[in-house]
Amino acid sequence: MRVRTAAVAAAAVGALLLTGCSGGQSVGSSDTLTWSMWIGSSEDQKVWDGVGGTGAEASGKKVSLQGSPFNDYWTKISTQLGTDSAPCIVTMQSLRVNQFSDGLLPLDDLVKSTGFDSDAFDEGAMKALAVDGEQYAIPYDTGPLLLFYNKDAFGDAGVAAPAPGWTVDDFEAAATALKKKGKTALATTVEDIFLEALVFAHDGGQMVDDSGGITLDNAKNAEAVEWIAGLVKNATATRADGADASADDNAFINGTAATVVGGPWNSLDFKAKATFEVGVTTLPSPKGAQKTYAAGSGFGISKTCSDPEGAFAAITAMTSEKTLTSLAQDGRAFPARTAAQAAWYKNAGIDGAEETLNSALAIAVPLPGSADGDKLNQLLSQYGPQMVNGEKPAKDVLAEISSQLGK
Amino acid sequence: MANVPAREVTEASAPAAPKDHSGGRRRGRSGAWGVGFAAPHALGLALFTLVPIGIALFMSLHNWPMIGSPSWIGLDNYQELLTDPTFRTALGNTFLFVVLYVPLNLVVSLGMAAWLSPRIRHRQIFRVIFFLPTVTPIVANAVVWRMLYQPGGAIDATAQSFFGIKMPDFLADPNWAMIAIVVMSVWQGFGYNMIVFSSALDSVPESQLEAASLDGANAWTAFWRIKLPLISPSLFFATTMTLITSFQVFIQPYIMTRGGPGDSTVTLVQFIYNQGFTFQKLGLASAAAWVLFVIILGVTAVQFLGQKKWVHYE
C-alpha cells in the first residue's frame, strides 16, 4: 500500500519535473551565441537581425537575438549578467558601462591577440566604453546630443532655420515667435541623458562628473533646470512626464512641441514618423560657449560566455566597416568607425545634418556614466518633473535626489 | 479540495459497514489516490512558493548584489529598512492605498451587486460590462487612465468645456496622485467582488425574505438584517482577498506615476522592485519582501480570528 502511494506520488513528481524542464531554454549552447539588444520596433528587429547575420557568418555560429524595449533592457540585463543565463554578446551604452563592468569581460587581450584595429574608431567613442583603462565593449555608434526641430513650425512662425552654434537667446526668441503661433517650443524630459545634455549645454552644469561621481548639488545644475522650468511656466515648453519616457519624442512627432533633444540615433525614427520636415541643430548654449555631450553604444562580452573568441569574432564583423556603413545608410546609427561616417551624412536625409554634426562633434565631450546611473535615472523620473515643471525649486529637488543617492 | 467531500460521501454512504478487511483496503487505496492527486499541487506549492519564501529569507540576511558574490550580514538589511525614510514612506503609502481602496472597492461592488438584482432587465449584460475592466490587462487600463487624467485629457477637457473649471494635474500633484490611483484601481477591481456578491445574493433563500416581509421588514431592513448576514462568508472571502492583493499594489502606480511625484505613490512592492532590479540590492529587496509577507500574514490572521464574530456559516 505504501509502495503504491509512493509510486503514484513519484509519477506525479516526474510529470511535474518533465513539464518544468521542457519550459527551460538552453542559453549559449555550443552552436549558438545569444545577443541581447534593445529593440523598439519591427523595423529595428529587421535591421539588427541583419547585423546578427554578419556576426553569425564570421563566427560560424548561430547568433540569436534577444530583444527588449530600451527601458526594460537594463532591468533584464542586470538580472542576467553574472548568471549562466547571461547572453554572450551584450549591447552596452557608454554611460552605463561602469554599472555593468563587473559582469563583462575586459576585451583588451582579445583585441591584442586578434590584431583588432581600434584606431579605425572614433577615439572618444572607444574611450567612452572603457572603465579604468580596460575596454569593455566595441562601439558601433556614437553621437553628440542635438536639438531636432520642426522645420514647418519654424517656417510658419517666421523663424529662420537655426544655424549650428545658435545661442540660448536665439532659442528664446524662436520660442516666443512659436508661442505667438500657438506652438510650444521645447518637449521636456527628465530622462538622464537628454536632461543632462540640455543642462550641460545651457551653462556647463554636470550632474555626473568625469570620475563618475554624482554632482547634482551645484548651482549651475539648479540654474539650468530653473531655466527649463521658466520655459514650462511661460508655456514655451511641455510639462515633463516622469512616468512616460517617450512623452517628449511623442510631443515632437505629433507636432505639439517644435523641438526635442535627441541623438543621431533618433533621426530615422523621427523622420519616419513625423508628418513635417525634420531639421537638426545644436543644443542652445551661451554665445561662444557651445557645449554638448556625446554618448554611444557598443557590443561587449559577458564574463560567463563559454566562447569569448567566437563572440569577439562576431562582434568584429558586427562593427566592421561594411556593417556600420550599411547601418549608416539606413540612418540607424551614426557610425563609431570614422570611415563609415560619410555614408550616414549622405543618407540622413536631413539638410544641414553634416554641418550640425561636425559643429557638435568638434566640441562634444563623452557623457560621464556613474555606477549609480540607473538609480539616478529612477529618482529623476520620480522627482524630476517637480523641478522641471516648476512646482518645487530645482535646488531643493536636486538636494533631495542626492540625499537619496548618498545612502 | 474536491477529494475531501468525495471521501466523506463514501464514508457516509456506508455507515453501517463493519470495519472489515475489505473496507480498510478500500480506504487505503483511496488514500493512495488522494496523495497522488494532491502531490502535484503540494509539490508545486513547495517548489514555487515555500522554497522561494525560504530563499528570500536566506537572501535577506546577506548583502546580495546582482553581479558579484553575496556576503552574510545578519539582520543589517532589516535595520537599514527601519532607518530608511523611503521605506517608511512606501509603507505609509501602501497603508494609505489599502485604507482607501479596500472599503471603497467593497462598497462599490456590494452596491452594484445589490442593484443588479434579478429584477433588473438584461442584468447579465450589465454584469459583463462591469466585469470587463477586471479581465482587460491592467497595464492597458493604467495607460488609458493616464491619458484621462492628463491636463487636457478627457476629465480635464470635459470639466473645462462644461463647467469652465480647470482640473488639477492629478498624477503630477502629490495631493491627488494617490487618490487618482485608488479611483482607477476601484474601477479596475470591483467587478470581481461584484460577481461574487451578486451570486451570493442570488442564493439567499426567497422564503426567508418572504418571511421577513410578512413580518413587516422593508427592503432596507431585509438587506441589512437578512441578506448581509447570509452572504457574510462571501464578504469575508472578498475582504480577505482584496486586502491581500491591495497590499501588493504595484502596476497602477508603476505605469501611471513611477512612484512620483517625488515619493508620494511609491508602494512597498515598487520599493522592492527598485531595490532589487534598479539598485541591484537583492538582499535589501528580499528583506523588504519579507516585511510585506509578514504584514499580509498578520492582517490575514487577524481577519480569520475576527471572522467568528461576524461570519455566519449555515
TrEMBL record, chain A:
Transmembrane segments: none annotated. It comes from the Bacteria. One of its GO terms (molecular function) is maltose binding. Keywords: Signal, Transport. GO terms for cellular component: ATP-binding cassette (ABC) transporter complex, substrate-binding subunit-containing. One of its GO terms (biological process) is maltodextrin transmembrane transport. Belongs to the bacterial solute-binding protein 1 family. This is Sugar ABC transporter substrate-binding protein. It comes from Streptomyces corynorhini. The lineage of its organism: Bacteria, Bacillati, Actinomycetota, Actinomycetes, Kitasatosporales.
From TrEMBL, chain B:
Pfam families: BPD_transp_1. Residues 1-27 are annotated as: Disordered. One of its GO terms (biological process) is transmembrane transport. CDD domains: TM_PBP2. Coiled coil: none annotated. It comes from the Bacteria. Its main location: membrane. It is found in: Cell membrane. PROSITE patterns: ABC_TM1 (PS50928). The keyword Transmembrane helix applies. The chain crosses the membrane at residues 35-61, 95-116, 128-148, 176-197, 235-255, 287-306. One of its GO terms (cellular component) is plasma membrane. It is a multi-pass membrane protein. Residues 91-303 form the ABC transmembrane type-1 domain. Belongs to the binding-protein-dependent transport system permease family. This is Sugar ABC transporter permease.
